[in-house]
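Design job #97: recover the sequence.
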């Protein structure tokens, strides 16, 4: 049918339909520049020291695990504070505070895990 005829014309006149046009030289330049910038800014893992990659990946795993633990068992890490409670009675860290000691430890471990990303960057 019609699609077959169009495909046949495209195959026959491919060069005429796809050749660079003078009025598109700016677009071609932008495409070329974009490709070169992508190549220059890519970080290849074969040029990064293995220690840095291990620290980065280990840090990612730590942050994900801590985030999941915070989500799955929040009562182990945090207590509740009602929106209409007096802000003057809010304590941040401790046994009766917003962040339990295990919550503070989890935050510290997650921050240490983020150091892998800082080393990688």
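Job complete. Output follows.
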């Amino acid at each position: 049918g019609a699609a077959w005829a169009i495909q046949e014309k495209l195959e026959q006149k491919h060069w005429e339909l796809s050749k660079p046009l003078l009025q598109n030289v700016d677009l071609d330049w932008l495409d070329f520049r974009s490709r070169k910038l992508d190549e220059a800014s890519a970080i290849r893992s074969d040029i990064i020291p293995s220690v840095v990659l291990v620290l980065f990946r280990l840090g990612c795993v730590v942050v994900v695990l801590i985030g999941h633990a915070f989500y799955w068992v929040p009562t182990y890490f945090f207590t509740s504070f009602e929106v209409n409670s007096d802000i003057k009675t809010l304590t941040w860290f401790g046994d009766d505070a917003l962040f339990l000691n295990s919550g503070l430890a989890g935050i510290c471990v997650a921050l240490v895990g983020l150091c892998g990303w800082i080393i990688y960057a």
